[in-house]
User: Which sequence fits this backbone?
């Protein structure tokens, strides 16, 4: 578990190491620790004695336990494949980029078809968006497949047709509750809205937006600012 106090580059380096560990068959996860606290708050907690820390109201122990269990236990299993929720914001952002790369390929566009989406994850670094359900899940290798990957369009479409547990509500609830990603829409979206319109125009053959309009899910402030949070 890594808190927002850890420098952004180091946190992402550790998250990439998780991918390597999974590729050799290890069940490894990097999970945010107290992502709802600022760097200043964490520095203050680091000065406390263990007994005082355990009783401190800013540390929500049950919330941390819930986050661990949400990630390390499979969200569901399908045909011997273990599908987990993404364990950290970097995994989510990698899924954003995967969707945008794969949708450029004809065979993947055909598999995806055109889908109506309500919730979109936004990657402020690349300026890309992707359906939140696609972004919230990752494939963890099994004995039959020791490799590790995030989500892919072929995997998504196969799960969407067969697995009731592959659920959009569960997806955006995980992103906002356990990874403390931030949800916004309408006037609160600011300059995200015109960026989304440009992205949507480029993907109009594969994405339509629900009649109630898009809702955006953003990485936590400390992640967007490269770990520099007061």
Assistant:
């Amino acid at each position: 578990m890594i808190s927002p106090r850890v420098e952004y580059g180091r946190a992402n380096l550790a998250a990439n190491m998780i991918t390597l560990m999974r590729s050799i068959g290890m069940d490894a996860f990097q999970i945010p620790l107290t992502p709802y606290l600022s760097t200043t708050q964490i520095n203050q907690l680091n000065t406390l004695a263990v007994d005082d820390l355990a009783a401190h109201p800013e540390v929500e122990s049950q919330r941390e336990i819930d986050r661990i269990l949400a990630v390390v236990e499979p969200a569901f299993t399908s045909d011997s494949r273990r599908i987990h929720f993404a364990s950290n914001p970097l995994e989510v952002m990698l899924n954003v980029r995967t969707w945008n790369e794969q949708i450029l390929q004809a065979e993947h566009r055909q598999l995806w078809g055109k889908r109506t989406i309500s919730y979109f994850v936004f990657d402020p670094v690349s300026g890309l968006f992707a359906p939140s359900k696609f972004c919230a899940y990752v494939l963890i290798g099994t004995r039959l497949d020791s490799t590790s990957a995030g989500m892919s369009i072929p995997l998504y479409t196969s799960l969407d047709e067969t697995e009731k547990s592959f659920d959009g509500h569960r997806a955006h609830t995980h992103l906002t509750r356990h990874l403390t990603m931030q949800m916004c829409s309408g006037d609160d979206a600011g300059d995200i809205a015109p960026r989304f319109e440009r992205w949507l125009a480029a993907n109009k053959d594969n994405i339509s937006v629900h009649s109630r309009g898009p809702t955006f899910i953003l990485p936590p402030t400390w992640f967007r600012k490269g770990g520099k949070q007061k």
